[in-house]
Each structure stands twice: as structure tokens, then as C-alpha cells.
Amino acid sequence: MHLPPHAVRPDYAGGSVLNLAATLGAHHGVPTPHAPYRHPLPLDGARHVVLIVVDALGAGQLRDAITRGDAPTLASLTPTPGPVTSVFPSTTMAALTTLHTARAPAEHGYLGLTVWLEEAQAVVNLIRLYDVYTHAPLADAGFLAAVPSLYRQLRDRGVAAHVVMPAAYRDSVLTRWACDGTEYHPYAQPEETPALTAATLPPGQPSYTLVYFPEYDLVCHGSGPDSPEAHAELRRTDRIVADLLVALPTNGDTLVVLTADHGQSPQPPDGYVDAITKKVMKTALRSPVAGEERAAYLHPQPGHHAEIAALLAPHATLLTADDAWTGGLFGPPTHADPRFRPRVGDLIAVPHPGHAIRRPTSPAPMLGLHGGWTAEEMLVPVLSARL
């Protein structure tokens, strides 16, 4: 599988968020088939693990924020000594589910915001669970819970498992599966997270807590990751993390790790490509385009593969889904679940930097995107502190 020079391949051999989650779970006794996280973490003797996930905080964005003086708290934490990657596609559905399950996208099946589901014979939005073309709801979503959550496995081993997340996410199908086994601590405003997180560390029982901040991602999408609005939101997050660290006990048995699910890249409005029109979708594709604007999954009609490739080749790197699957883009092939292979179509188009594939079912154009394999999207920070 040949990738362009600018592509950052997910490092499932030890340098990805998959390996980070697997190692944090293994510290509390959860077995994993995956390679351990290769960078050292001060885990010895830690009874409590707190994993903070700042959605969309790429390694480059954090570096720039520290240079600007916007992230003094994050600058004070210990960084990993080498690069760490997200998964592919570099998007929340795939990467955050990996952090919740310690499984690769090819194992848990959440392979993008929208995917082709054989079970429903439709392209389905995996957040809202509806057919993206007809908007009909998915009648039965139980089959999506393909692997056990990391938290259920922790709880089965006597470890208290908690998540501190927005109240709005509490009752979603994804949350009920991916956070199974946890005590859910909802918040209305992220400023509530320090007190909520401190309450999850019982003195007599080992614990594992995930704290999730989605707000930065939302601002980056709407205003762009280089915008004043995004900078302000990251300063806010830094202040909240400072308060959270102060709220936690400092008796030496708590490890705090901060990471992201993916980064964000600025998206010029004139970089959106309208190659997949309604006419093309009706005549040359078997189903609506799935995936992401920065990583599209397509099902060409028989005899139309060359036509679709010609439309997209000036704007994107094209590869067959079979090559991507067997080449380990979605996770180590030895652990990939063949049931999920159809979810990524027959042809994958990853737009060149600055480009995005718009289609009739796309949301309004955004000024920040992710999902592809540029360094801005793929490289994430891992910071730690032993308290």
C-alpha cells in the first residue's frame, strides 16, 4: 500500500492512541492483544489513572499554543519523548471509540462518522443513527456493540471505572456501549469537571477515569483551528485542567495522562471539491459517499470505477479498500474483524492537504476538518503528571 509523502501512517506497533489505551488498561489487569505503548509512563504503583481527552488538540496545535503562552498548564506536564499518532480515519468516531475500548477501528467497527452498514443496507450516521439519504432512523442498533468496553473489563477486575462527560451524551447508543461499566458523571459546563473528577478517586479502591472535553473540536470546526476563537477555547481548557490538577489528591498514587483523539487542519472554503454531485451519486455509485470529507468511502457501480477515480484523482489519493484493510490502515490485520470490511466501501479517497470532498449529504462547509492523514490531523500529544 503506497501512501503519499505527506501521509502519517497510524503507528499501531506501539506509538498510537490504541497502544496508549491498551497499556493503561493493562496496568489494571485488562489483557490486550496489542503492542504496549512504547514511550515510558510513570505507572509503577499508580492506583488511580485519570485520562483527559481534549478533542481535536493536535500536537502541532499544542506546540503553537505553548509558544503563544496560551497553555501554561499543559506546558508544565511531561511530554512523551516521541510522536504519537491517532488512528485512521483521524476522526472522533474512530479514535474516541478506540480510547473507550482499547481496540483498533477494524476491531470495534466505528470506522467514521458515516459508514455503509450491511445490516441496514444503508449509509448510516453513527452518532445520530439514521440513513443519511432517507433520514430514516436505524431500527435496531444493538449489533453495533461489537467489543466490550475497556471500562466493563476494568470493573470486572475490581477497578472502579468512571467517565466525566457532557450531560448531552449520556443516553446515546454509542455512550451506552462504549461507556458500559462506568459511573457516568455528567456536566453542563466544562468548569464543573475538576470537582467531578476529584470525586471519582476512592481512597480504598483502584480507579480509572476518563475526562472528555469536546468543546475545542467544535470551535475549531466552526472557526478554524488557527482562529482567535479556537485560541480562546484552548486557554479556557488549559485553565480548567489547572483547576482539575489542583482538585486531585497529591499522595503519589495518581497518574494523570492528557491526550487527544486527533488534530485539526484548517480548511480553506475554496478547497471543497464538488466532484460527487447528485447525478454522479445516482448513476455511478451504489450508495451515498460515506466516511469523512477528509477520508471518503465509495461504492462505485460495476463499470464506473474508472469514472469515479478520474473525478477524484486530481484532488485526492485513491486506494482500494481491500489494500487499506489488509495493509493495516484501520488496525493490525491479524485482529481486524472481517464483518466490518464492507463498511469502508470499495474505493477510499483521501483528499490532498487543503482539500475536502463535499457531497450532497455533507453538512455546511467547515473551516476546520480532520479524518485524513496529514501531520496536523494525525499527530497528537501525550502529556503526563504523577500526583
TrEMBL record:
Top-level taxonomic group: Bacteria
Gene3D superfamilies with a match to the protein in the record: Alkaline Phosphatase, subunit A (3.40.720.10)
PANTHER family (UniProt xref): BIS(5'-ADENOSYL)-TRIPHOSPHATASE, ECTONUCLEOTIDE PYROPHOSPHATASE/PHOSPHODIESTERASE
Protein name from the UniProt record: Phosphodiesterase
Lineage: Bacteria, Thermotogati, Deinococcota, Deinococci, Deinococcales
